[in-house]
Amino acid sequence: MNQIPQLIGVFSYLSLLTFGGFMAAFPELKTLTVEDYHWFTFKQIIHMYSIGQISPGPNMMIAALGERVAGPLGAFAAIVAYLLPTCLIALGVGRVWEKFGKRPWAGAIQKGLAPVAVGLILAGLISMARGTFEEWLSFVMAGTACVMILTTRISPVTIIICGALIGVFAFKII
User: Fold this and answer.
1) Tally of domains within the chain
2) 85: burial class by Cβ within 10 Å (0-12, 13-18, 19+)?
3) pTM of the model
4) How far is CA 163 from CA 57, 66, 160, in A?
5) In this structure, is residue 51 part of a structural domain?
């Protein structure tokens, strides 16, 4: 069965939830791709998201998800469906903001949207954590990475490489 229309629907919808980044849409991504359409397991989504996050540039896991569901055309459809709605909205809002951005209500909107974005990101983080923390070492690694990012000047790349090496040896993936 052709999954392209479903991919377009899913990723167009998800694009509208990404205030603050794709993590904000993660709970709904899980619901749609794991529970509703059964395209992936929760573990697969977590792994694909993680690889997408540590790769340079924007998180292109969308292309990987689309490709796995419907081949190269699915990858293309998922990317366009994900990017087009928000691009069009951003262009429209940008024009309106250019005209009315100095009004008092514009600042109030910005102050109201910032905590909402944080809440959406936290919901995504909690959703992902539920599928990630299966052993104590995962908690320790996450906590250590967080503390190191917040309190040192160690490059995130170094922390990512260390996490990957610990994973290879501690979780015996190879």
Assistant:
1) 1
2) middle
3) 0.79
4) 20, 27, 5
5) yes
